[in-house]
Specification:
- It is a multi-pass membrane protein.
- Pathway: Protein modification; protein glycosylation.
- Keywords: Endoplasmic reticulum, Glycosyltransferase, Membrane, Transferase, Transmembrane, Transmembrane helix.
- The protein has helices at 15-33, 49-65, 71-86, 104-121, 125-155, 157-169, 171-176, 182-198, 202-216, 221-234, 237-263, 269-278, 294-303, 305-311, 317-324, 327-332, 334-343, 357-369, 371-375, 385-415, 418-424, 542-546, 552-556, 570-575; strands spanning 90-91, 436-440, 457-462, 473-474, 506-511, 526-535, 559-567.
- By secondary structure, the chain is an alpha/beta fold.
- Helix 9 runs parallel beside helix 11.
- It is globular.
């Protein structure tokens, strides 16, 4: 007979304990397996005050200390704005009514600040220049603050805080944020539309995108495509589509009317610009050709290692797939689209990358934030040593990037601020005779605008120092004029130079102490009113001129002198 052992029934577990255990397991899984998961939706994230104050401070510093990086900023935007205010200034061929490539609507947007400031400060034109810059800095501050708040609400405070630090201190954002350029306006729009997209305000995101393309830079439409398309998919298609359509039609109609008012004929600067560059009418290669790696080198100069990290965002998607897709991928994808498109163009300029600068910061900080996930074991309940090290390295690596960025910013500001400093000296030499003529030779492309020219200077003239391209001319009495000396082939005009150098009262030159002659060295004809150091790019080592390295920056680099000269009256020479 078989021996029967008593059966022991397992004690029933209460349903509450089962629920608690399941919740504990789920919580442990979410924290340990998924790593740095975005915060719960009921958390508020960063408030707007901190990013607004931090960005506002840095943008104020940019407005007051930024140099002018591109002569197009001066002659295509500052000079026409000066003409609208004071009826004087230089005009490029793009503003001839024959070509009508530039939008006066974009200029009128800045007249909202420039007009009242010019009235308030009367003859202090330089105040208008810096108040417009402050206005640009304010727009940058507002749009970037909205982006930081959106990132904080969707992905947590750490990602938002890291992005804030990069927006404040990277050289690219510091310099581009207060530049008077359509590409900068497009950068504002890209930043704001991306933020609105993350906040799930899809109709507003598409409206801002349309304004950024049509008021700012038409070619930036490629950058706005991902957000626009995905907004149409995720939001109410009808509402989003109508929002973009109404904004686009309104801006186009307003732009055409403004162009008619200033060019004196029915035309569209938006269409003319696209026609010139896209439909075969333009020859942008006339203004310089760069290699396919130009933007990669330029991106590293302005963002150092954060630019490389931004490019790693897509390769790391298998690790961060659940954390950042699809929304953040949609936001940063224009980096790849724009880099690929612009690298294929023969003519390249640094400002062409401005629209994606804020996106570079977002992508780079997202990669830094995912450092621990690279070493995390999905099936382990404990953090490995490498994960702990990666968490420590996040702020360390960010700090190194920001230090390198500050080094780059310092080097550019102190190495190339000579033109702004010298032209400001004109205010202190009103003892020069009224009706003075200020002459500029090879340094015409560093002319900071007529806002720096005091009233005692009758005119600014170019001196032939060997440049054979087409230079800007003073505006005619009407913006509707089509002067015969303008052409779209960059061919010099015989009328663009002032040939009587003896009539020059003042002269601005850069003396790099090379074998070729410098007028300032002729002490019998010219006296130096002011001179400041200017970094000699050709003779200075690349690493030392690009980044400020304590002690070595002054020792290793070579400097010339940026000079303001005044002609010595001939009767004084004869007396001597």
């Amino acid at each position: 007979m078989a021996l029967k052992l008593p059966r022991h029934r397992r004690q029933a577990v209460p349903e509450r304990d089962l629920a608690d255990a399941a919740a504990l397991a789920a919580d442990r899984y979410s924290k340990e397996d998924k790593g740095d998961k975005p915060r719960e939706k009921d958390e508020k994230g960063l408030r707007w005050q901190l990013p607004f104050l931090a960005l506002g401070l840095l943008r104020h510093m940019s407005a007051s200390s930024n140099i002018i990086h591109d002569c197009d900023e001066v002659f295509n935007y500052w000079e026409p704005l000066h003409y609208l205010l004071y009826k004087s200034g230089f005009q490029t061929w793009e503003y001839s009514s024959e070509f009508a490539l530039r939008s006066y609507l974009y200029l009128l947007f800045h007249m909202l600040v420039a007009g009242p400031t010019a009235w308030f400060y009367k003859d202090e034109k330089i105040q208008v220049f810096y108040k417009v810059r402050l206005f640009l800095g304010l727009i940058s501050t507002i749009t970037e603050t909205v982006l930081i708040v959106a990132l904080s609400r969707k992905y947590g405070k750490r990602l938002a805080t890291y992005t804030l630090a990069m927006l404040c201190l990277t050289s690219g954002c510091f310099f581009s944020s207060t530049s008077f350029l359509p590409s900068t306006f497009s950068m504002y729009a890209v930043t704001l539309s991306s933020a609105l997209f993350l906040l799930e305000k899809y109709a507003s995101a598409v409206s801002v995108s349309a304004a950024g393309v049509l008021i700012g830079w038409p070619f930036s439409i490629l950058i706005f495509l991902p957000v626009t398309i995905y907004s149409l998919i995720k939001g109410s298609f009808k509402k989003v589509f109508l929002s973009g359509l109404i904004t686009s039609v309104s801006v186009i109609v307003l732009s055409v009317y403004v162009d008619y008012y200033y060019y004196g004929k029915w035309t569209s600067s938006i269409f003319n610009l696209l026609k010139y560059n896209v439909l075969g009418g333009g020859e942008s290669n006339l203004y310089g050709v760069e290699s396919a790696t130009y933007y990669l080198r330029n991106g590293f100069n302005n963002f150092n290692f954060s630019f490389i990290l931004a490019l790693l965002f897509v390769p790391l998607l298998p690790i961060t797939l659940k954390k950042y897709t699809p929304d953040l991928l949609v936001v940063v994808s224009p980096i790849y689209i724009w880099l690929a498109f612009m690298s294929l163009q023969p003519h390249k300029e640094e400002r062409f990358l401005y629209p994606i600068y804020t996106l570079i910061c977002v992508a780079a900080t997202a990669v830094i934030d995912t450092f621990p996930d690279i070493f995390r074991d999905r099936f382990s309940t404990e953090e490995s040593f490498m994960v702990k090290v990666a968490k420590v390295l996040r702020p360390v690596f960010l700090g190194l990037i920001l230090c390198a960025s500050h080094s780059r910013t310092f080097s550019l500001l102190h190495g190339y601020s000579g033109p702004l400093v010298i032209y400001k000296h004109l205010e202190h030499h009103e003892d020069a005779s009224p009706g003075s003529i200020l002459c500029v030779g090879s340094e015409w492309h560093r002319y900071p605008s007529s806002f720096f020219i005091p009233s005692y200077v009758k005119e600014v003239r170019w001196i032939d120092d060997g440049f054979r391209g087409l230079l800007p001319f003073p505006f005619n009495s009407s913006t509707a004029a089509a002067p015969s000396y303008f052409n779209n082939k960059n061919k010099a005009s015989d009328m663009q130079y002032h040939h009587d150098i003896d009539a020059c009262t003042l002269f601005v030159e850069l003396d790099l102490r090379r074998p070729h002659p410098s007028r300032g060295r002729d002490l019998s004809k010219w006296e130096t009113l002011a001179a400041v150091h200017y970094l000699d790019r050709e003779l200075s080592p690349a690493i030392y001129r690009s980044f400020f390295i304590p002690y070595s920056w002054h020792q290793k680099n070579v400097f010339g002198l940026y000079k303001l000269l005044r002609k010595i009256p001939q009767n004084n020479v004869d007396q001597d």
